[in-house]
Write a structure and sequence with these properties.
The structure holds 2 protein chains of 2 kinds. By secondary structure, chain A is mostly helical. Chain A has 11 helices and 2 strands, in the order αααββαααααααα. The C terminus of chain A is likely disordered. In chain B, α1 packs across α4 and α7 runs antiparallel to α9. Classes of the chains: A mainly alpha, B alpha+beta.
Chain lengths: ~325, ~375
């Protein structure tokens, strides 16, 4: 187990290096930097601009700038955001916390619905509950977050049920109405329900047909124990893989949800970084996001081994179910 | 040769060993497929006939009517008389700040089928200026006064979905938007799928080094969430782009990003299939590698690959919408579902007419539902 974690951590560092170098190069290839917009100002001479670039080190070769960024990173700094006029780290940390709150709530909601409904439906195949389960999967899979978020915005604009921009500007405690937090989390959670519920229903349904479940029932165990302790445990592997994989989906989805529902988190920040060409900020966001996704995958791999002793034999991992989008 | 592939990852289904489903269930599955396909086809039909269905040019601005609500359609005039033919009244902006409009009931302007409008080419071929509906050029006075007062005024325009902030017809824009939105996402998906299948075949068939390099590259691609990756790639290009450039750029970005998942699925299928007897037989017969790959292996991997494509499609369609909504996709005056949704940021208007402003969102929902029905039907059919 320890070997796995160390190997994966090292691999993760390599992937992060590749991803960050690639992003750095892409953004440099774009040409233009924070100072480009200043060049339109007639009050600022070309020589002044060149001087500014020299001071900020923007005229160095690409490799030098990237190495400087890496060196900064090694000292625990993420550079300076020219757009917000603050070190990147001080902007990112509170935003990251907000996004984490949203993501945790969304994941909790989605798993809650998926496990409850999935277990109930799997126990009674072809009942009305099972049909409902199928309908919920189809509906949640086709309700994109952008559509739901705008519908929530319309609801907020029409009624006074909740405020958009839950606790905007202030801290989370500033959001007095819990709905202001729950609604964005709900919007974020809906497409995840499709992903989780389909897998729960299918996996549990298959597991409940297995012989060991019949044995457990024959022993006279209560149905609750049969489903939760025996069948669910057997159906858990793909669910764990999806859990790790869903980190990326949550981060991707939070971009649009945060922008529309005014949640000042990481997603909103990444859009601001792109629109304002803030290279350092975008690098920071990319780095943190990629770390979160890799951490999710690692967590899933560790959990898989904890759940399934067959995987502990040092064999390469049964790769995460990646086809479920 | 046509061995059914039930054990190859993407299609693996829980009740493989169950007896074939009863007829009713099979019919239901087939119905899903058909409904989904007809939804998708009708969207493309609308895109094809957008110019004919739209009453006005999607770029034409009516300066006097910014942010107008839908035109009320009347059957009964101010004098209390009923008309078989629906008509509209001219409207006047009474409060430019609150955007309230008052109707002028002096003259009624009947709606007409197939009136003349702006010229276009039907299906890109037949030059014509007929549109499905519009306001008839001649008006009917509803009173003596009306006949005298406004005989010289030109007919008002009818806006079934209101106008946007620049006074453009939102219905015409919505119809036009299907073209951009249904082109960019799906084309990007197809190109990404083609590239991914190619890479997957090479990785699965060519052997160790190529396999390792390509799959690690795919891993790196998949380490970042899709939309963030697309945003980062988009940031590398000028923010302001013309519609054609934006379309090409978005398709290129989708292709560059979408291949990874496709490649991984294809590789898995190729690895599984090359162990099968019919492939071994083909190898034994001395057929060339490319022939084995394209004539024996790929046709048998078709179903799961198509399912994978149908899973990728909504992601890219929505990515285009999101980018356009954020202002870095296709920009005005070109219309796309995404940039039409920018109108919804006007919350006072959104509160007043939520359904009117969210019609593009409804279109997105219905289209994605159609695609999901198809992928669902494909995954479970026969």
């Amino acid at each position: 187990m320890l070997k796995l974690i160390v190997t994966r951590l090292l691999q993760g560092v390599v992937v992060l290096l590749v991803v960050s170098a690639l992003t750095f190069w892409l953004l440099a290839a774009a040409g233009g930097d924070v100072l480009t917009s200043l060049s339109a100002d007639p009050m600022i001479s070309r020589t002044a601009l060149a001087e500014l670039r020299r001071v900020y080190g923007l005229d160095d070769p690409l490799a030098v700038r990237y190495l400087r960024w890496l060196a900064d990173l090694a000292r625990g700094r993420l550079g300076y955001s020219f757009y917000f006029h603050t070190p990147v780290l001080t902007i990112i940390v509170p935003r990251l916390l907000r996004t984490l709150v949203l993501a945790a709530l969304a994941l909790g909601m989605a798993w809650g619905v998926a496990l409850t409904l999935g277990a109930l439906a799997a126990r009674r195949p072809r009942s009305w509950l099972d049909r409902l389960c199928g309908a919920v999967v189809l509906l949640t899979a086709s309700l994109p977050r952008i559509v739901l978020a705008l519908a929530a915005l319309a609801l907020a604009a029409r009624t006074n049920l909740f405020t958009v921009g839950g606790g905007a500007g202030g801290d989370l405690a500033g959001a007095r109405n819990p709905l202001s937090v729950l609604v964005p989390a709900f919007v974020l959670a809906v497409p995840l329900v499709a992903l989780f519920l389909a897998q729960t229903r299918e996996g549990l349904g298959a597991a409940l047909n297995e012989d060991f479940v019949r044995v457990a029932r024959a022993k006279g165990l209560p149905e609750r124990t049969v489903v939760l302790r025996h069948a669910l445990r057997a159906a858990l592997n793909p669910l764990i893989s999806i859990f790790g994989y869903s980190f990326g989906s949550v981060v991707s989805g939070s971009i649009i949800v945060e922008v529309i529902l005014g949640w000042p988190g990481l997603g909103q920040l990444s859009v601001a970084a792109v629109v304002n060409r803030d290279v350092a900020l975008l690098m920071g966001v990319v780095l943190i996001t990629a770390t979160a996704v890799l951490a999710g995958n690692l967590l899933a791999d560790v959990l898989l081994r904890l759940n399934d002793p067959r995987l502990r034999g040092g064999r390469p991992t049964a790769r995460a179910v990646n086809s479920a989008a | 040769m046509s061995a059914a592939l039930t054990h190859t990852g993407a299609t693996a289904h829980a009740d493989d060993d169950a007896p074939p489903p009863p007829r009713r269930r099979r019919l239901r599955r087939r119905a899903r497929l058909l409904v989904g396909l007809s939804v998708i086809l009708s969207f493309y039909l609308v895109a094809l006939c957008a110019d004919f269905l739209a009453p006005y040019d999607y770029r034409a601005q009516s300066r006097g009517e910014p942010g107008a609500p839908p035109s009320p359609i009347h059957f009964r005039d101010a004098g209390g008389n009923w008309h078989a033919r629906p008509f509209v009244y001219a409207r006047r902006l009474t409060d430019p700040l609150a955007r309230t409009y008052a109707e002028d009931a002096m003259r009624a302007y009947p709606l007409a089928l197939f009136p003349r409008g702006y010229p276009y080419r039907l299906f890109g071929l037949v030059p014509t200026s007929r549109h499905l509906f519009g306001v008839q050029a001649e008006s009917q006075p509803t009173s003596q006064q009306g006949a005298a007062a406004s005989a010289t005024e030109s007919a008002p325009r009818v806006y079934l979905l209101g106008t946007d902030a620049s006074g453009r017809d939102r219905l015409s824009r919505l119809l036009r938007a299907t073209r951009f939105s249904l082109l960019v996402g799906p084309l990007g998906t197809l190109l990404a799928a083609a590239l991914g299948v190619l890479v997957g075949c090479v990785a699965g068939y060519a052997g160790r080094t190529a396999d390792a390099v390509l799959m690690r590259a795919a891993d790196a691609m998949m380490a970042l969430p899709e939309l963030l990756l697309i945003l980062a790639a988009r940031a590398a290009f000028p923010l302001q782009l013309g519609p054609a450039q934006a379309a090409v750029l978005l398709v290129a970005i989708f292709t560059a990003i979408g291949w990874a998942e496709m490649a991984r699925v294809t590789r898995g299928l190729v690895l599984a299939l090359r162990q099968r007897e019919f492939v071994l037989a083909a190898v034994g017969l001395g057929l060339s590698q490319s022939r084995i790959l394209f004539r024996h292996i790929l046709p048998n991997a078709a179903r799961p690959l198509v399912v994978q494509v149908s899973l990728l499609l909504p992601a890219f369609l929505l990515a285009e919408t999101a980018l356009s909504y954020l202002g870095v996709g296709v920009q005005e005056p070109e219309a796309s579902w995404g940039n039409m949704l920018i109108d919804a940021n006007d919350t006072t208007r959104l509160a007043a007419q939520p359904f009117v402003l969210l019609t593009p969102a409804l279109a997105i929902f219905v289209f994605v539902l159609g695609v999901r029905l198809v992928s669902d039907g494909l995954r479970r059919a026969d």
